[in-house]
Structures are given as C-alpha cells and as structure tokens.
Amino acid sequence: MLSVDGQDIHVSQDGPTDDPALVLIHGLGASAHWWDQVVRLLPGYHIIRVDLLGHGGSAKPAGDDYSIPQQGHRVAGVLDQLGIRHALVVGHSTGGAVATSVAEQRPDLVTGLALIDAGPAMSDDTSESPASQLLTTPGVGDLLWQVRTDDLLRQALHSAFATDTYPIPQQFVDDLRGMTYHALIATDTASTDYITQRTLPDRLTALGKPLLVIFGDQDRRWRPGTSTAEYQAVPGATVVTIPDVGHSPFVENPHTTAQTLLSFTSIHAS
Fold first, then answer.
1. Is the separation of the CB atoms in 161 and 252 below 8 Å?
2. What is the structure's pLDDT at 264?
3. Is residue 129 classed as helix, strand or coil in its secondary structure?
4. Would you say 25 and 99 are in contact if contact means Cβ atoms under 8 Å apart?
5. DSSP string computed for 25-50
C-alpha cells in the first residue's frame, strides 16, 4: 500500500524489479485481480498492477478525486515511489484512458502504450447490459446498489464478455461489490468526460508514443469495427482484433492477448 497525495493506493508487483517495467491498469469496477491469468504469461518483466482510487484495495473517498487526470497522476506517483524511470503502460477500458493520461502528464516516464478495448469516443459506446445501465441511472442505481446481489452484479458484468454464459469469477463480482456507489458513478462519469473533451485517438496522435490497440471482435460495450478504424488513424499504431472474445480479451483469451502484448513490448521495452 502506497500513499499518493494522501490517498492509499494498493499496488501488486510480480517479476524481478530489475526487469523492464510493465504497468497494468484495470477498467471500471475491476481490480488488479482481472490481470491474474495474463501476468504469468508475461515473463521477463517487472509487472506493476495498480488498483485505481475507488477500486480493489485502494481508498474509496467520498470526494471529487476521480477524474482521469487525477487517476493518471496517482499511477505516475506510484511509479515514482517505486523508482521506475521508464515503463510500458497497458490499460483496459477505462484503464486505457488512465494510461493515456499518464503519458500526457509524464511523457518522460511512458515509453509506449497498449490499450485493450478502450473506447475511443462516446459515439462508439454501445453498452448492452440492462443491469449496468440501471446501476448508473440516477435515482435508481443507488437503490439497487444497496441490494447488489451476486445475480445483479453478474448481470451488470456480462457485457464485459462475449456471451452471457461466460463463467464470471466470484472475484470479479466481489471487486464490483466492494466499490462504493459514489466511486462507481464518479469513475464512470470521469471516463466519459475525458473522452468527450478529446477523443483517445486525438490524444494519442498528439503524444506520438508507440501504440498497440487490442480489441475483441465481439465487444458489446464499444463498436469494435468503428473503434478499431478510429485507432488505425493514429500514425504508427498497431491495431489487433482478437476473434471470438468480447470486451475483456485478456480474461477470455489470455494466451493470445499475452502473445500480442509480448510482440509489442519486446520491441519497445527499455
């Protein structure tokens, strides 16, 4: 547990600390545990997983500390405290926006970016989960949150996978239940605000960093066809579509995701 700007941030580390740093940032309602399957498939790296504020083992304050730039600042603060001078940063979904913000604020720190099913712009949003939509509806979601049974939370999580029959681990249900309603809504709003102010492809074009974009071709939260097309417009970007998986390819097909990441990181790690 590290303190960054007075907030406790939970950090997990795997691999030798003198190996190249690889940072993994989870998405909305998740935690570092979502990366468990893929971590063991990424040898040769000092892997650093950060629970964003409001998630996992990190603090869950009631204030207005959830903007994407604030989240990015904390990730950079974690790396500074760990003595990391250069890192490749991987972000899933909302974590992709946070990863982009880290690079915007600290271009000296980030040597390359990999985004996994990170929505490029709100025009590509196509969330299908009725339960997820209910949970984020003012006046309704807060009441449902007081109940938040396993069944309700699993329904909300289904759209993160290709089908409603995907066996969602209990850990993922517990990660979502462990959030406060304020942290969930504030993070969701912050992510929307960030890509509304400026799309991720526009931000990434300005950054000029090595970029890998991975999308599941069955993503039910973002339109994979138009989303990948927008990222392909970023100069030098490598865009990979993984078949037969949804919004979370590193969970649904960790081996292919790891191989794709390694082909990118082996070139750009420092």
1. yes
2. 97
3. coil
4. yes
5. E--TT--GGGGHHHHTT-TTSEEEEE
85-142 tens-digit pLDDT: 999 999 999 999 999 999 999 999 999 999 999 999 999 988 765 456 666 666 767 7
Interhelix angle 200-207/94-105, rounded to 10 degrees, is 30
Structure tokens at 93: 């979904």
| CATH code of the region 2-127+187-268 | 3.40.50.1820
The predicted pLDDT at position 134 comes to 62
* Residue 22 and residue 45 in contact, taking contact as beta carbons nearer than 8 Å: yes
Say how far apart CA 175 and CA 191 lie, in whole Å.
19
CB–CB of 237/213 below 8 Å?
A: yes
Q: What angle do CA 25, 90, 170 make, to 5 degrees?
A: 45
For the chain, what is the mean pLDDT?
Answer: 94
The answer to whether the beta carbons of residues 150 and 173 sit under 8 Å apart is yes
Q: Give, in degrees to the nearest 5, the angle at Cα 30 between 214 and 255.
A: 40
The full set of domain ranges for the chain reads 2-127+187-268
Q: Is 206 exposed, middle or buried (0-12, 13-18, 19+ CB in 10 A)?
A: exposed
CB 198 within 8 A of CB 104: no
Is the pLDDT at 248 greater than 60, yes or no?
yes
Q: What is the CA radius of gyration of the chain?
A: 17
Q: Which of 2, 10, 43, 50 is nearest to 27 (CA)?
A: 50
Cα 255 to the chain's mean position, in Å? 18
